[in-house]
Specification:
With 516 residues, the protein is an alpha+beta fold. It is built from twelve helices and 25 strands. Strand 4 and strand 5 form a beta hairpin.
Length: 516
């Protein structure tokens, strides 16, 4: 948007499809409209990538992760930016402050005014863990207003699309049907296209090759699985914003397989972080609970040791994520923990049977997202494994500071939450069976740094060794944030775009955002 606003000719290549509110699934059991698995003719908004040591939930489509995320906009504490990973010589908290403010205005961020049953349960959980004073409603990118009532654009003095009031259905993470969720196609991308940017969906970039005046970008049609059509684009400058797995995968393949970007830093794929996350939960075995009402993440609290705990929900009828759940299992190695799971199933067999017979898992389930700013990391490389079908693809490699698959506070929180709702506590299967934590907020792999031996891009996001090639997404973030990272990624993008002057000779007088 900012580059189109400044008069540049801009094209956006997006692997996923373009969606309207009517295109989203009514339930995440509608897998062809919910999941992104092209080989199975599934072209939805949610991709689940299983790597050795890591399970990643990430978004696909015009609007990126905003289509499927929980629209939670949180600022990390100032201490995060003073960590060793952030390039020195810049007061990052101060420099990013105005960009955070702009990002919040564009995204229509507001405090969640509706605390429902799951949120009130989280409040009790916070009190039980001695953290009741830190409980709060989340800041979210949602238009509340009167439920389902459509109004003229309330954000940009009428220049944006009309919006409908949130009906608290809990459907944020399967795609918002009534247009209440402030996804990027309703603000940044909306104005980008209005000002001349070309958005080209169903287009996956495969190769980036330097040429005399910029780069050649080779692509394939992402929704054609066999012999896909190919197109080559040419650009003076290229910005990678494909999320960590997309961006890092492209950089590694072009450095190590195609050899088109040979001067890339050896730091590509290093310092990949999961935002210190663990996903646990509890399913009520009572028939009188409805934990599905409200926004996807409506409340949070901070534990005594600094972990962020949030209540997460899916809408009633959307229980497909139960396929990722297993009974809560104690700590152990990758060899012993599966046996502990088997023992837990046998010891609690009646509860496990009742759990799997719960008719509406989403309606009865409280998911807990726990995030930490503590440093732990993995490395991404191009390799072959069972998970890549033995073809060359991204594989995860442990580091000297491995990401834990067992967080004691998360286990305790799941146990207490289960007692509060009269239910059964759960882990994600990847943590127990694969020793792989699950994350929706993967960061790093193309980190900002002061020099090439310390990172992949400079503090202006330009790739070391390849002028005119930039990275602007979560892969530049050089530390765990300990909160949902979307707002920080947008603030970094605002700062990145601000460095470019207006295009020579461009008349930008009519390209302004006026706020209501």
């Amino acid at each position: 948007m900012r580059l189109a606003q400044k008069g540049y000719r801009v094209a956006l290549l997006e692997m996923g499809k373009r969606f309207t509110s009517a295109d989203f699934p009514r339930s995440n059991w509608q897998v062809t409209r919910y999941l992104w698995i092209p080989l199975l003719r599934c072209f939805g908004i949610q991709k689940i990538s299983v790597l050795k040591g890591l399970l990643v939930l990430h978004g696909v489509g015009v609007g990126g992760g905003s289509l499927v995320y929980a629209n939670t906009m949180m600022r990390p504490g100032p201490a995060v930016f003073k960590g060793a990973g952030w390039p020195p010589g810049i007061d990052w908290a101060q420099v990013l402050a105005p960009h955070y403010e702009m990002a919040m205005r564009i995204m229509g961020v507001t405090p969640n005014p509706h605390l429902r049953e799951a949120d009130l349960t989280l409040q009790k959980l916070a009190q039980r863990l001695g953290a009741g004073a830190t409980f709060h409603g989340t800041d979210v990118a949602v238009h509340f207003g009167a439920p389902n009532e459509v109004v003229a654009d309330p954000y940009f003095s009428g220049a944006g699309p009309g919006r409908a009031g949130c009906d608290l259905c809990g459907g944020c993470m399967i795609g918002c049907h009534n247009g209440s969720k402030n996804t990027l196609d309703k603000n940044y991308l909306y104005f980008a296209e209005k000002w001349g940017a070309h958005v080209i969906p169903e287009t996956r970039v495969t190769r980036i090759t330097p040429e005399a005046e910029g780069y050649a970008i080779e692509t394939v049609r992402s929704t054609q699985c066999f012999m896909p059509s190919k197109t080559v684009f040419h650009a003076h400058k290229v910005i990678l914003a494909a999320g960590v797995l997309g961006t890092v995968g492209l950089l590694l393949k072009n450095r190590d397989v195609y050899k088109t970007l040979p001067r890339l830093s050896r730091g590509v794929g290093e310092h990949v972080r999961t935002n210190g996350e663990s996903l646990v939960g509890a399913t009520s075995l009572r028939g009188d609970m409805d934990l599905s009402r409200g926004v996807a993440i409506g409340s949070a609290f901070l534990t005594a040791n600094g972990l962020k705990v949030e209540a997460v929900r899916y809408p009633a009828g959307s229980g497909a994520m139960r396929m990722l759940a297993v009974p809560l299992t104690g700590n152990g190695t990758r060899l012993t923990r599966p046996f502990k799971l088997l023992a837990a199933i046998l010891m609690r067999l009646p509860d496990v049977v009742r759990l799997w017979s719960v008719r509406d898992w989403a309606k009865r389930t409280l998911i807990l997202l726990i995030m930490s700013a503590d440093d732990a990391r993995i490395r991404l490389r191009i390799g072959r494994s069972v998970l890549t079908g033995f073809s060359r693809g991204l594989v995860a490699v442990p580091s000297a500071q491995p990401v834990p698959s067992y967080i004691p506070v998360a286990q305790e929180a799941a146990q207490v939450a289960s007692a509060l709702i009269g239910g059964t506590p759960q882990n994600t299967f990847s943590e127990v069976l694969l020793g792989a934590p699950a994350t929706a907020h993967i960061l790093g792999g193309a980190c900002m740094a002061s020099a090439q031996d310390a990172g992949v891009v400079d503090t202006g996001h330009e790739v070391f060794g390849h002028a005119g090639l930039y990275v602007c997404d979560g892969s530049v973030v050089p530390s765990n944030l300990g909160v949902n990272p979307s707002l920080t990624i947008i603030a970094l993008a605002e700062r990145f775009a601000a460095q470019f002057p207006s295009a020579p000779g461009a008349d930008t007088s009519a390209r302004e955002v006026h706020f209501s």
